[in-house]
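Worked example

This section walks through a single chain of length 220. The input is the sequence exactly as stored; nothing has been trimmed or padded.
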Amino acid sequence: MLCDIEILPEETERHIQINDMNAAALEKIWPVLVKRYPGFALNLCFRNRAAPVEALAKIGATVLEDCVDYRVTTENYIPHEYPGIELLTLDDFDAFAVLHDSLPDMYWTSRRLRAVWEQDFWRIFILRENGKIIGYSMLRLYPTDLGEVFALELEAENRAEKDARFYALLSVAVQCTFDNKKSTALNQVERGDNRTLDAVKAVGFKECGYYIGYEVTIPV
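Given that input, the structure is written out below as tokens.
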């Protein structure tokens, strides 16, 4: 806790996350962060709550993610199947990492995923074609009643409109959520990502809110 505000620092990664901070709290804590965590990456996250845009602009924070919150329960889940989808094992992790790390930046890089692999809260499903991994979905299981689909990808040259493989990669992650006795699966879809939006609707997800994240590097 700093200034009575909960922060989530990761010293080894030089990364901090703070959730749902208002303008007054940000103004209060910013000088403390600059003094204590110079050079750290700071993420400020807002779920179904207006972000203090002017205060964020003053510290140089820019939008990292602007997503719509979609959720599905067992009652509205629509399964989709496609042959050959597998659960990733360490034997194939390096091959998965090649595809994963070639895509736009995300916090959960393959290095971070590998570092927590033994903690067993990730499930990653892969799809191969001619022996090569061409797509995957990433599911994180929380201690609560929730599983979150963090990533849903299919190589650009392999994508088709309303692709059954894309839907199935999402569907298998949702099914895994329910198989692990979680009642709800979450997928935060970037605004404008119509391909993923088609998939979540096809699998039965319903819009439930929004999430917006900002990022800034704390000055040295």
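What to look for: The longest helix spans residues 164-179.
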